[in-house]
């Protein structure tokens, strides 16, 4: 159910409905807890037919309260405007249209057409391969450099730490520093259980 809000003019120029629109509600409060709190606070003005809230991002911090009687909506708007609820002062105005609960009660309910947005075709994921190998290192026969480059590693090309795996057991920090100093400026090399971390300056 999508409801519209009034334009904030004086009450005499507004469309007076049995549904009020609230905004500036505390978004950190759980949706069900906020609904219960609004029901408890506003039920003093009369019978509430429905409290409508949505999880969608653009509708957070907002609510619609549908009353059975017009006087209840008017009294609640005048009395509760600016009332602090969960540390936030509420703004209240009449909704431009009544909630479905009100129109069903009045016998004027008309189902709204459901318009589904066309789903966008997801972009096919391309297989990421290592394309920026240094020619000197890639062409050397029997090179102990890892033959497998993980896709997630290749996406981190702008990071200052290079992860090297599948190294021979005889690899040492000194060997790796000498090897990679030809390509990048290495600050220090750290070897941890068959994984080397080369920190660039």
Automatic annotation (TrEMBL):
InterPro entries, per database record: Nucleotide-bd_a/b_plait_sf, RBD_domain_sf, RRM_dom, RRT5_SRSF_SR
* GO cellular component annotations of the record: cytoplasm; nucleus
Q: Which CDD domains match?
A: RRM1_U1A_like
Q: PROSITE patterns given for it?
A: RRM
**Residue ranges, compositional bias (Basic and acidic residues):** 114-123
For region Disordered, the annotated ranges are 112-143
- List the keywords (alphabetical): RNA-binding
Gene Ontology molecular function, alphabetical: mRNA binding
Q: Any idea where the RRM domain is?
A: 18-97
Q: Name one Pfam family in it.
A: RRM_1
Q: Where is this chain compositionally biased, Basic residues type?
A: 124-135
Q: What is this protein called?
A: RRM domain-containing protein
Q: What is the lineage of its organism?
A: Eukaryota, Metazoa, Chordata, Craniata, Vertebrata
């Amino acid at each position: 159910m999508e409801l519209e809000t009034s334009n904030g003019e004086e009450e005499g120029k507004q469309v007076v409905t049995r549904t009020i629109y609230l905004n500036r509600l505390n978004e950190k409060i759980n949706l069900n807890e906020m609904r219960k709190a609004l029901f408890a606070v506003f039920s003093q003005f009369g019978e509430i037919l429905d409290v409508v809230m949505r999880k969608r991002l653009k509708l957070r911090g907002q609510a619609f309260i549908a009353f059975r009687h017009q006087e209840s909506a008017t009294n609640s708007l005048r009395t509760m405007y600016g009332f602090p609820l969960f540390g936030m002062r509420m703004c209240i105005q009449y909704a431009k249209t009544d909630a479905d609960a009100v129109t069903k009660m009045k016998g004027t309910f008309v189902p709204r057409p459901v318009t589904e947005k066309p789903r966008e075709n997801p972009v096919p994921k391309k297989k990421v391969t290592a394309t920026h190998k240094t020619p000197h290192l890639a062409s050397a026969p029997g090179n102990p450099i890892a033959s497998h480059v993980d896709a997630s590693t290749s996406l981190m090309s702008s990071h200052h730490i290079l992860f090297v795996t599948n190294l021979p057991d005889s690899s040492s920090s000194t060997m790796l520093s000498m090897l990679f100093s030809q390509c990048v400026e290495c600050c220090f090399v750290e070897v941890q259980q068959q994984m080397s971390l080369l920190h660039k300056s």
